Amino acid sequence: MILDKAKLNKKDSNKHIEIKNINLDGVTVDDVILKKDKSNYTEFINLKNLLENVSSCQISDAFNNAFRRSGVLSNLKPINDKKAYGRIVTAYTNSDDWGTSTLAIDEGSNGDILFIESSDNDNAIWGELASTNARENGIVATAVYGSVRDLDALKHGDYPIFACSFVSNAGTPLGLGEVNIKLNIEDMVIYPGDFFFGDETGVVIIPQRLFNEVMVQTLAVKLKEETIINMLKEGKSLSEITKIKQ
């Protein structure tokens, strides 16, 4: 099929689709980003309209419904309460080496999420300068399984940050860690290209091979909750709706 580039360029990347009309057929984790030729426009728009209107709680419920897993990293918390989602670029470093974080920034592409595991929380491996660099490179968020610093800037900035802790001190820029490797965290295996979703409540990781099934379940969870909310507004009780009996 020959694509009409003029028509493609006119397509609205912010097009609104009602939740009930979202179609996730054939959607993959790669559709989180609109391709340059916009050949995945339909998948991208449907997926974007879902992800912009759901929470980490709903995605976790969906993962549990489909695979009896939560996907939650309980020690990882939002620093500035901003939502972010995308494909993961992984890295591992000792906490005295913040230089590996800069290598991860260089490895990331537009729309990626950096997920950096630190050996411990003793030193910060991320701060204001790294956030500025990552944002300018098109990376949409960073999750540090360790410590960050510069909270005066990070908490009030527009770049989403998730971390386990924060401290004032940092190590040195050695760059001795590894980028794009498998990580083992909280009984979860995280691979480059897996899906990250974080918001005010927390972080959920979805393996890329299970992405479509979890998104389909997420849509079902969202629609069910909207139905319940409407029933509550009509005067029914939650115990009545969920059929909980004393």
UniProtKB/TrEMBL annotation:
InterPro entries: RraA/RraA-like, RraA/RraA-like_sf. The keyword DNA-binding does not apply. Keywords: Lyase. The keyword Amino-acid biosynthesis does not apply. GO terms for molecular function: (R,S)-4-hydroxy-2-oxoglutarate aldolase activity; 4-hydroxy-4-methyl-2-oxoglutarate aldolase activity; oxaloacetate decarboxylase activity. Pfam families: RraA-like. CDD domains: RraA_family. It is an enzyme of class 4 (lyase). Its EC number is 4.1.1.3, 4.1.3.-, 4.1.3.16, 4.1.3.17. PANTHER family: 4-HYDROXY-4-METHYL-2-OXOGLUTARATE ALDOLASE 3-RELATED. This is 4-hydroxy-4-methyl-2-oxoglutarate aldolase. The lineage of its organism: Archaea, Methanobacteriati, Methanobacteriota, Methanomada group, Methanobacteria. The gene is proA.
